[in-house]
């Protein structure tokens, strides 16, 4: 069924309570324009940055913006996950959750990339632990001890096999 | 060139990267002279903003000397020392025409909710930022502003974000003469917001944080009451109600955003498990401590996609919520005037000067609030300014 609407300005009472001073966006938006008031709302800059790398585009806009950043084009497994995420709109979990996952995968890819280039990442320095050691020693030691305990505990949990033979409990009523 | 390089949550380093190039006729390349680490950068640093990719350079508060310009750049020239607003804005789109330079429609391909921001993840356009020796600045006819003769570069670099964001926080609060304003968060933006509340005629300004050194700084810098929510009160909402004849504050500013402490459930779900887009503790306190019919102004950054926000209280109390990234370009003329007239003294916020080579230590220091750090400035030995 088609929507056939009357011109709203012909409806009785259209605009009789309009109040141009009731603009809660002032002064952040001045002059305030709605889309139909702006004769030029489809205007685009005269030049567009050439799209010579892969740029992922939100499905909530029709085109690539006139300029864009080129920091880190999507690559590898994280890139595949990001491409999947951009099939969904920004209001969808299918967009943001895969992006967060891709970010974590990307961290591992970064370490692999470092190693592939013969560089062992200095995680201690990258995390700025030297400055924490200098200014917040007790908290730093506590943090490191906690990480060590959790790490050792996890390793023991997964590596220690149960040496006792397993005896199934008798099922049935308690006697 | 040397640049900050993001490697993953809480892991950054300074590394050699290729020089930026002109990609668009309105681009400029600047040799960075000053660059700050911003509280908003900590959301990226902690891995809380989706689509923050390994290899990115952060930094949206910087000044620099123009080294190269594209063929269509007419407003600045090689050799100019410019401050670069954090917004990437075309100046021509539907939103820029209305002064909403923080919401430009032609600078972010990857998300429609926010305009482009330098060095702020691919969710904000994927631009490398200014924590590097050189940076590409798109739309150089719009954003970059020549630093006025005689202005200290340390003041200028804070005009790229901290001062406009603090000022707009106060502006959006709709302060009427005599109003009581509460500011949550005594970081650089919160302190600046508290200072700017007086410019709009506030009658009383209260700032709340959990770090005594920040509160002491705020007391001295912004001439406001300052309270520690861990030591001076059991419940910030009740504390503010009692301090305002049980009416609530006229206006409340959230200058904290997604890293808020103060509520275990919010911290676990929002900051540790990322089940919501950051902790909304400060926003809860803001909504619940403002008076009925009052205004909540939000400049603290919250990531996508969802948060636990007491929207029922917003309805029942008849609140107005105003929020945005600051539109630096719109505010600059007025703020430059304020700095030149001595009304605002931005550079007093800078407490640490960190060489780019030690950027990892700078992030750790700011993030962990070590050594009474209020605002760290990255300095470039090559800048000679």
TrEMBL record, chain A:
Kindly list the residue ranges recorded as spanning the membrane: 144-161
Q: Which UniProt keywords apply?
A: Membrane, Transmembrane, Transmembrane helix
Q: Where is this region: Disordered?
A: 1-47
What protein name does the entry list?
Uncharacterized protein
| Organism for this UniProt entry | Hymenobacter volaticus
UniProtKB/TrEMBL annotation, chain B:
What are its cofactors? Answer: Zn(2+)
Q: Does the keyword Metal-binding apply?
A: yes
Alphabetized Gene3D superfamilies for the sequence: Medium-chain alcohol dehydrogenases, catalytic domain, NAD(P)-binding Rossmann-like Domain
Q: Which part of the chain is the Alcohol dehydrogenase-like N-terminal domain?
A: 25-144
InterPro entries reported for this sequence: ADH-like_C, ADH-like_N, ADH_Zn_CS, GroES-like_sf, NAD(P)-bd_dom_sf
Q: Keywords, A to Z?
A: Metal-binding, Oxidoreductase, Zinc
All copies of domain Alcohol dehydrogenase-like C-terminal, residue ranges = 188-266
CDD domains in the cross-refs: FDH_like_1 (cd08283)
Q: Which family does it belong to?
A: Belongs to the zinc-containing alcohol dehydrogenase family.
Q: Which PANTHER family has this protein been placed in?
A: DEHYDROGENASE, ZINC-CONTAINING, PUTATIVE (AFU_ORTHOLOGUE AFUA_2G02810)-RELATED, ZINC-TYPE ALCOHOL DEHYDROGENASE-LIKE
Write down what this protein is called.
Answer: Glutathione-dependent formaldehyde dehydrogenase
Can you name the source organism? Answer: Hymenobacter volaticus
């Amino acid at each position: 069924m088609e929507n056939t609407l009357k011109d709203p300005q012909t409806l009785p009472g259209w605009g009789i309570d309009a109040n141009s001073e009731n603009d809660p966006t002032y002064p952040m938006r001045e002059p305030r324009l709605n889309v139909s008031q702006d004769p030029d709302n489809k205007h685009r800059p005269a030049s567009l940055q050439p799209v010579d790398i892969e740029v992922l585009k939100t499905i909530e806009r029709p085109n690539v913006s006139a300029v864009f950043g080129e920091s880190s084009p999507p690559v590898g497994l994280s890139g595949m996950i990001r491409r999947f995420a951009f099939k969904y709109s920004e209001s969808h979990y299918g967009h943001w959750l895969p992006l967060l996952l891709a970010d974590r995968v990307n961290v591992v890819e970064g370490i692999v990339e470092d190693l592939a280039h013969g560089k062992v990442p200095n995680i201690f320095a990258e995390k700025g632990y030297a400055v924490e050691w200098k200014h917040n020693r007790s908290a730093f030691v506590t943090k490191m001890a906690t990480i060590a305990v959790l790490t050792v505990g996890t390793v023991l949990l997964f590596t220690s096999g149960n040496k006792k033979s397993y005896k199934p409990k008798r099922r049935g009523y308690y006697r | 060139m040397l640049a900050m390089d993001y490697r993953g949550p809480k892991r950054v380093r300074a590394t050699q990267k290729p020089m930026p190039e002109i990609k668009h006729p309105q681009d400029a390349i600047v040799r960075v002279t000053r660059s700050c680490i911003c509280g908003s950068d900590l959301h990226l640093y902690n891995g809380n903003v989706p689509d923050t990719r390994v290899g990115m350079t952060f930094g949206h508060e910087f000044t620099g000397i123009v080294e190269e310009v594209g063929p269509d750049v007419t407003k600045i020239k090689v050799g100019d020392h410019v401050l670069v607003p954090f917004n990437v804005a075309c100046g021509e789109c539907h939103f820029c025409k209305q002064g909403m330079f923080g919401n430009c429609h032609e600078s972010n391909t990857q998300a429609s909710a926010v305009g482009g921001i330098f060095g702020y993840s691919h969710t904000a356009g994927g631009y490398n930022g200014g924590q590097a020796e050189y940076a590409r600045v798109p739309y150089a006819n719009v954003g970059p502003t020549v630093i006025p003769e005689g202005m200290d570069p340390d003041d200028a670099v804070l005009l790229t974000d901290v001062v406009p964001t603090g000022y707009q926080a106060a502006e959006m609060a709709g302060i009427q003469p005599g109003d009581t304003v509460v500011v949550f968060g005594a970081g650089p933006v919160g302190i600046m917001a508290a200072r700017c509340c007086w410019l709009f005629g506030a009658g009383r300004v209260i700032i709340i944080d959990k770090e005594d050194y920040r509160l002491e700084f705020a007391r001295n810098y912004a001439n406001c009451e300052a309270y520690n929510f861990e030591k001076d009160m059991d419940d910030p909402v009740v504390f503010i109600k009692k301090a305002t004849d049980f009416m609530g504050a006229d206006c409340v500013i959230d200058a904290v955003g997604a890293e808020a402490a103060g509520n275990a459930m919010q911290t676990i779900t929002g900051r540790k498990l990322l089940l919501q887009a950051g902790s909304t503790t400060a926003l809860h306190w803001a909504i619940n401590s403002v008076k009925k019919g009052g205004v909540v102004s939000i400049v603290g950054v919250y990531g996508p996609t969802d948060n636990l926000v007491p929207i029922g209280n917003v309805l029942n109390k008849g609140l107005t919520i105003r929020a945005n990234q600051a539109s630096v370009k719109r505010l600059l003329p007025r703020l430059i005037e304020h700095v030149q007239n001595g009304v605002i003294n931005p550079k007093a916020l800078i407490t640490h000067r960190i060489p780019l080579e030690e950027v990892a230590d700078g992030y750790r220091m700011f993030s962990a609030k070590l050594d009474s750090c209020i605002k760290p400035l990255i300095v470039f030995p090559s800048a000679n300014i």
